[in-house]
Design a protein that fits this description.
The protein has 139 residues and is mainly β. Helix content is 14%, strand content 47%. It is built from 1 helix and 10 strands, in the order αββββββββββ. Strands 1-2-3-4-5-6-7-10 form an 8-stranded antiparallel beta barrel. A two-stranded antiparallel ribbon has the order 8-9. β1 and β2 form a beta hairpin. The longest helix has 19 residues. It is globular. It starts with a helix and ends with a strand.
Length: 139
Amino acid sequence: MKHAIIALLLWLLPAALAAQTARPFEGRYDNEEHKVFFKLNLYDKDILVPGQEIYGELDGYLGSTQCNHVWAITVARIISPTEAEVTLINNYGSEDLTARLIALPDGELEYRFVDGSSLKFPVNGKWQKIPKSLKLKRK
């Protein structure tokens, strides 16, 4: 009987792990090297952007841990269970860009620039440019 219970648990373990990653476009993902993060929920569109609550609930935003500047997700389209396309605008609405978000098998999220303005944040009086491809870990 003991072996049957252990076998059942081992059989259910992959299903439980898959359920945890069934919504890869939800949560917070961080990149420590560039000190940026995504806070997103492309499924329910229920994220308030700090300091920009007037826009209401959005799909999410990309922020920096070094400043208050954010790039809000204004349009999001889930292409497949592991890929989404997003359009982001900066705080002032003066710049926008399109990017792909790819859910990787290890639970990380990859950001890939597609078109538009360069992704950048004001840090200590200078613009910190973010690479066109970036991996972020779920926090």
